[in-house]
Amino acid sequence: MDDTAVRDNERTPPRGAYEAFLLVVGLGFVAVVLFVFAFGYWGEHVVEGLDGACAEAVFDVANKLRDMGHDDLAIQRFRQALGGRFRDSERRFMCGRALGDLLKKHQRYDEAIEVYRSLPPEAYAFAGAYAGFVDALWRHGMLDEAEKLGAVWLAKAEEERNAEQIEWAHGIQMCVADERGRIEEAVAHGRAAVATNPKSDIGLMLAQLLHRQGKTDEALAQLDVFLANSTNAKLLPEAEEFKGRIAASTPLP
Fold this sequence. Notes:
Blueprint: H1 3-11, H2 17-46, H3 52-67, H4 71-82, H5 89-105, H6 109-118, H7 131-139, H8 143-160, H9 163-179, H10 183-196, H11 202-212, H12 216-229, H13 235-249
Helix pairs in contact: 3-4, 3-5, 4-5, 5-6, 5-7, 6-7, 7-8, 7-9, 8-9, 9-10, 10-11, 11-12, 12-13
Protein backbone atom coordinates (compact mmCIF):
# COMPACT_ATOMS: atom_id res chain seq x y z
CA MET A 1 0.00 0.00 0.00
CA ASP A 2 1.48 3.39 -0.96
CA ASP A 3 1.78 6.40 1.40
CA THR A 4 -1.23 8.12 -0.13
CA ALA A 5 -3.50 5.16 0.55
CA VAL A 6 -2.24 4.95 4.15
CA ARG A 7 -2.98 8.63 4.74
CA ASP A 8 -6.47 8.23 3.21
CA ASN A 9 -7.17 5.30 5.52
CA GLU A 10 -6.02 7.30 8.56
CA ARG A 11 -8.45 10.09 7.69
CA THR A 12 -11.37 7.73 7.08
CA PRO A 13 -13.46 7.10 10.27
CA PRO A 14 -14.30 3.54 11.20
CA ARG A 15 -17.41 2.11 9.59
CA GLY A 16 -20.54 3.16 11.55
CA ALA A 17 -18.79 5.91 13.57
CA TYR A 18 -20.95 8.68 12.12
CA GLU A 19 -24.14 6.80 12.91
CA ALA A 20 -22.92 6.17 16.48
CA PHE A 21 -22.16 9.88 16.90
CA LEU A 22 -25.67 10.83 15.78
CA LEU A 23 -27.14 8.28 18.17
CA VAL A 24 -25.22 9.71 21.15
CA VAL A 25 -26.22 13.28 20.28
CA GLY A 26 -29.83 12.23 19.85
CA LEU A 27 -29.93 10.43 23.19
CA GLY A 28 -28.39 13.46 24.89
CA PHE A 29 -31.01 15.75 23.39
CA VAL A 30 -33.82 13.44 24.50
CA ALA A 31 -32.38 13.36 28.02
CA VAL A 32 -32.33 17.15 28.20
CA VAL A 33 -35.91 17.38 26.93
CA LEU A 34 -37.08 14.79 29.46
CA PHE A 35 -35.33 16.65 32.29
CA VAL A 36 -36.91 19.98 31.37
CA PHE A 37 -40.31 18.35 31.02
CA ALA A 38 -40.01 16.55 34.36
CA PHE A 39 -38.73 19.61 36.23
CA GLY A 40 -41.35 21.87 34.72
CA TYR A 41 -44.34 19.65 35.47
CA TRP A 42 -43.26 17.45 38.35
CA GLY A 43 -40.65 19.69 39.95
CA GLU A 44 -42.26 19.35 43.34
CA HIS A 45 -41.15 15.71 43.35
CA VAL A 46 -37.73 16.41 41.88
CA VAL A 47 -36.49 18.55 44.77
CA GLU A 48 -37.79 16.38 47.60
CA GLY A 49 -34.85 15.57 49.81
CA LEU A 50 -32.39 17.59 47.78
CA ASP A 51 -29.26 18.86 49.47
CA GLY A 52 -28.61 22.48 50.33
CA ALA A 53 -26.95 23.40 47.05
CA CYS A 54 -29.94 22.21 45.03
CA ALA A 55 -32.57 23.77 47.33
CA GLU A 56 -30.78 27.11 47.19
CA ALA A 57 -30.44 26.86 43.42
CA VAL A 58 -34.21 26.37 43.11
CA PHE A 59 -34.67 29.34 45.46
CA ASP A 60 -32.56 31.48 43.13
CA VAL A 61 -34.66 30.32 40.16
CA ALA A 62 -37.82 31.27 42.06
CA ASN A 63 -36.47 34.77 42.70
CA LYS A 64 -35.69 35.23 39.00
CA LEU A 65 -39.16 34.00 37.99
CA ARG A 66 -40.78 36.43 40.42
CA ASP A 67 -38.65 39.32 39.15
CA MET A 68 -39.71 38.44 35.59
CA GLY A 69 -43.38 38.53 36.60
CA HIS A 70 -44.00 34.76 36.45
CA ASP A 71 -45.60 34.67 39.88
CA ASP A 72 -47.42 31.33 39.59
CA LEU A 73 -44.24 29.51 38.63
CA ALA A 74 -42.30 31.42 41.29
CA ILE A 75 -44.74 30.27 43.97
CA GLN A 76 -44.25 26.67 42.85
CA ARG A 77 -40.48 26.97 42.97
CA PHE A 78 -40.46 28.74 46.35
CA ARG A 79 -42.55 25.87 47.75
CA GLN A 80 -40.20 23.32 46.21
CA ALA A 81 -37.14 25.03 47.63
CA LEU A 82 -38.72 25.34 51.05
CA GLY A 83 -39.31 21.58 51.03
CA GLY A 84 -35.60 20.94 50.47
CA ARG A 85 -32.64 21.26 52.82
CA PHE A 86 -30.81 24.59 52.97
CA ARG A 87 -27.21 24.81 54.11
CA ASP A 88 -27.86 28.36 55.36
CA SER A 89 -30.87 28.71 57.68
CA GLU A 90 -31.23 32.43 56.88
CA ARG A 91 -31.63 31.57 53.19
CA ARG A 92 -34.45 29.20 54.15
CA PHE A 93 -36.10 31.99 56.16
CA MET A 94 -35.75 34.32 53.18
CA CYS A 95 -37.40 31.70 50.99
CA GLY A 96 -40.33 31.33 53.40
CA ARG A 97 -40.86 35.06 53.73
CA ALA A 98 -40.64 35.52 49.95
CA LEU A 99 -43.27 32.82 49.44
CA GLY A 100 -45.55 34.39 52.05
CA ASP A 101 -45.14 37.84 50.52
CA LEU A 102 -45.97 36.57 47.04
CA LEU A 103 -49.06 34.72 48.24
CA LYS A 104 -50.16 37.87 50.09
CA LYS A 105 -49.66 39.92 46.95
CA HIS A 106 -52.23 37.69 45.23
CA GLN A 107 -54.62 37.97 48.20
CA ARG A 108 -54.14 34.32 49.15
CA TYR A 109 -54.00 35.41 52.77
CA ASP A 110 -54.78 32.10 54.44
CA GLU A 111 -51.96 30.38 52.52
CA ALA A 112 -49.58 33.26 53.23
CA ILE A 113 -50.33 33.17 56.95
CA GLU A 114 -49.78 29.41 57.03
CA VAL A 115 -46.34 29.89 55.47
CA TYR A 116 -45.40 32.75 57.81
CA ARG A 117 -46.48 30.69 60.83
CA SER A 118 -44.41 27.71 59.67
CA LEU A 119 -41.21 29.71 60.13
CA PRO A 120 -39.42 29.63 63.50
CA PRO A 121 -39.02 32.75 65.70
CA GLU A 122 -35.47 33.19 64.41
CA ALA A 123 -36.92 34.06 61.00
CA TYR A 124 -38.26 37.28 62.51
CA ALA A 125 -35.03 38.65 63.90
CA PHE A 126 -35.47 42.10 62.35
CA ALA A 127 -38.38 44.52 61.91
CA GLY A 128 -38.86 44.15 58.18
CA ALA A 129 -39.50 40.42 58.53
CA TYR A 130 -42.85 41.18 60.21
CA ALA A 131 -44.28 43.47 57.54
CA GLY A 132 -45.89 40.91 55.24
CA PHE A 133 -47.05 38.69 58.12
CA VAL A 134 -48.86 41.48 60.01
CA ASP A 135 -50.32 42.95 56.84
CA ALA A 136 -51.72 39.53 55.82
CA LEU A 137 -53.26 39.06 59.29
CA TRP A 138 -54.95 42.46 59.14
CA ARG A 139 -56.26 42.00 55.60
CA HIS A 140 -57.55 38.55 56.52
CA GLY A 141 -59.53 40.05 59.41
CA MET A 142 -57.41 38.47 62.15
CA LEU A 143 -57.29 41.67 64.17
CA ASP A 144 -56.22 40.23 67.54
CA GLU A 145 -53.13 38.57 66.12
CA ALA A 146 -52.40 41.51 63.81
CA GLU A 147 -52.49 43.93 66.75
CA LYS A 148 -50.37 41.74 68.99
CA LEU A 149 -47.73 40.98 66.37
CA GLY A 150 -47.92 44.56 65.09
CA ALA A 151 -46.85 45.81 68.49
CA VAL A 152 -43.81 43.52 68.37
CA TRP A 153 -43.05 44.79 64.86
CA LEU A 154 -43.29 48.43 65.95
CA ALA A 155 -41.11 47.89 69.02
CA LYS A 156 -38.42 46.19 66.95
CA ALA A 157 -38.57 48.94 64.30
CA GLU A 158 -38.14 51.59 66.99
CA GLU A 159 -35.26 49.63 68.50
CA GLU A 160 -33.58 49.54 65.09
CA ARG A 161 -34.53 53.18 64.40
CA ASN A 162 -35.84 52.03 61.04
CA ALA A 163 -38.01 54.95 59.90
CA GLU A 164 -39.67 53.07 57.03
CA GLN A 165 -40.70 50.16 59.24
CA ILE A 166 -41.89 52.52 61.99
CA GLU A 167 -44.11 54.30 59.47
CA TRP A 168 -45.62 51.06 58.11
CA ALA A 169 -46.11 49.50 61.54
CA HIS A 170 -47.97 52.60 62.74
CA GLY A 171 -50.05 52.48 59.56
CA ILE A 172 -51.24 48.91 60.17
CA GLN A 173 -51.90 49.64 63.83
CA MET A 174 -53.92 52.68 62.74
CA CYS A 175 -56.07 50.51 60.46
CA VAL A 176 -56.60 47.87 63.16
CA ALA A 177 -57.58 50.47 65.76
CA ASP A 178 -59.95 52.15 63.30
CA GLU A 179 -61.68 48.85 62.47
CA ARG A 180 -62.17 48.30 66.19
CA GLY A 181 -63.76 51.72 66.64
CA ARG A 182 -60.84 53.16 68.62
CA ILE A 183 -60.56 56.31 66.52
CA GLU A 184 -58.45 58.31 68.98
CA GLU A 185 -55.87 55.53 69.01
CA ALA A 186 -56.05 55.29 65.23
CA VAL A 187 -55.41 59.02 64.90
CA ALA A 188 -52.44 58.77 67.28
CA HIS A 189 -50.88 56.05 65.12
CA GLY A 190 -51.59 58.11 62.00
CA ARG A 191 -49.91 61.17 63.47
CA ALA A 192 -46.87 59.11 64.44
CA ALA A 193 -46.59 57.68 60.93
CA VAL A 194 -46.80 61.11 59.27
CA ALA A 195 -44.33 62.57 61.77
CA THR A 196 -41.90 59.86 60.70
CA ASN A 197 -42.51 60.48 57.00
CA PRO A 198 -44.46 63.56 55.80
CA LYS A 199 -44.70 61.98 52.32
CA SER A 200 -46.49 58.94 53.69
CA ASP A 201 -49.72 57.82 52.00
CA ILE A 202 -51.05 57.44 55.54
CA GLY A 203 -51.40 61.22 55.58
CA LEU A 204 -54.56 61.03 53.49
CA MET A 205 -56.10 58.39 55.75
CA LEU A 206 -55.21 60.52 58.76
CA ALA A 207 -57.05 63.48 57.23
CA GLN A 208 -60.09 61.28 56.69
CA LEU A 209 -60.01 60.14 60.31
CA LEU A 210 -59.74 63.72 61.56
CA HIS A 211 -62.69 64.72 59.38
CA ARG A 212 -64.76 61.87 60.81
CA GLN A 213 -63.94 63.19 64.27
CA GLY A 214 -65.33 66.55 63.28
CA LYS A 215 -61.89 68.18 63.38
CA THR A 216 -62.32 70.00 60.09
CA ASP A 217 -59.49 72.51 60.46
CA GLU A 218 -57.02 69.78 61.40
CA ALA A 219 -58.22 67.63 58.53
CA LEU A 220 -57.66 70.49 56.06
CA ALA A 221 -54.25 71.24 57.56
CA GLN A 222 -53.27 67.59 57.22
CA LEU A 223 -54.46 67.57 53.61
CA ASP A 224 -52.25 70.58 52.91
CA VAL A 225 -49.28 68.71 54.37
CA PHE A 226 -50.10 65.66 52.27
CA LEU A 227 -50.56 67.66 49.05
CA ALA A 228 -47.31 69.55 49.64
CA ASN A 229 -45.23 66.43 50.27
CA SER A 230 -46.79 63.38 48.62
CA THR A 231 -45.43 62.00 45.37
CA ASN A 232 -48.25 59.45 44.92
CA ALA A 233 -49.82 60.39 41.58
CA LYS A 234 -52.84 58.16 42.25
CA LEU A 235 -53.71 59.63 45.66
CA LEU A 236 -53.06 63.32 44.94
CA PRO A 237 -56.26 63.80 42.86
CA GLU A 238 -58.26 62.01 45.57
CA ALA A 239 -56.79 64.31 48.21
CA GLU A 240 -57.60 67.40 46.11
CA GLU A 241 -61.18 66.20 45.63
CA PHE A 242 -61.55 65.41 49.34
CA LYS A 243 -60.23 68.84 50.31
CA GLY A 244 -62.69 70.49 47.91
CA ARG A 245 -65.62 68.59 49.44
CA ILE A 246 -64.59 69.56 52.97
CA ALA A 247 -64.12 73.20 52.00
CA ALA A 248 -67.51 73.30 50.23
CA SER A 249 -69.31 71.90 53.26
CA THR A 250 -67.58 74.18 55.76
CA PRO A 251 -69.54 77.36 56.63
CA LEU A 252 -67.72 80.64 56.22
CA PRO A 253 -66.55 82.32 59.46
